[in-house]
Amino acid sequence: MGLLIRGGEVVTAAGRRAADVWCAGESITRVAPEIAPPPGATVIEAAGKLVFPGFIDPHVHAYMPLKNVTVKSDYDSCTRAALLGGTTCVMDFAGSGLEPDPDAAWAAWDQQAAGQAHCDYAWHLTLTRFDETTRRQLEAYVARGLRSVKIYLAYKPTLAMSDTDLYRVLEFAAARDLIVMAHCENAELVSALQQKLLAAGRTGPEWHGPSRPPLVEAEGVCRFLTFAAATGAKAYIVHVSSAAALTMADGFRDRISELFLETMTHYLVLDKTCAERPNFEGAKWVLSPPLREKSDQAALWAALADGRIDTLGTDHCPFDFKGQKELGRGDFTKIPNGIGGVEERVALAYTAGVVGGKISLERLVAAAAENPAKIFGLWPRKGTIAPGADADLVVWDPAARRTLSRQTQSIATDYNPYEGIDVHGAPEVVTVRGEIMVRHGQFVGSPGKGRLLL
Ligand code: MN
Ligand code: MN
Question: How far does residue 181's CA lie from ligand 2's centre (Å)?
Answer without folding.
Answer: 10
